[in-house]
Amino acid sequence: MNPTLLIIDIQNDYFPGGEMELVKMDEAAGNAQKLLYYFRKNNLPIVFIQHLATKPNASFFIPETSGAEIHQSIRPLDNETVIVKNFPNSFRNTNLNQHLQASNSKDLVICGAMSHMCIDTTTRAAADLGYSCTLISDACATRDLVFNDQKVKASDVQIAYMAALNSTFAQVISTDQFLVTTSSK
After folding, report:
1. Residues ≥6 apart with Cβ < 8 Å to 38
2. 26 is catalytic
3. Which of 13, 32, 46, 77 might form a disulfide with 18, Cβ 3.0–4.6 angstroms?
4. For the whole prediction, is pTM greater than 0.90?
5. pLDDT, tens digit (0-9, with 9 covering 90-100), for 77-116
6. Could you say which of 111, 118, 133, 140 is catalytic?
């Protein structure tokens, strides 16, 4: 079975100078770029997910702004699929599930942002829908969070979400682990 690469929300607003800058977004995008290169080189399916805000008071991913555009480091080619979503879960109110079913995709390789939001909800939904998921931890990014006046560092958020998703919902590995494993098959 050929895996499908699912690149979620690697958009300008998450990068330095954007409206919702994430920690280590450049590094995550660099790893996503390596995955994208591998999938393109091997003629494997790729789906880009682009989040566009619909809430009236949204502060980022505002439609028709440069911040909502897919980042130039992983920009889709004309023949590659882009699915627009308006919720954290990439399956909610989109044709993602139908697209994957039509292309007979059963195995997903997931990367993108934010780990604690769209990556988490999409990975859980994909597993619930019966997809086999591989989550590429270092091709995902998140940010510091605050709960009850306590700051949770992005590195701790990242570890907690990757640990929670690992084994039950996905196999969580690094970019290098994925590339070494798939190249040896």
Report:
1. 44, 179, 182
2. no
3. 13
4. yes
5. 999 999 999 999 999 999 999 999 999 999 999 999 999 9
6. 118
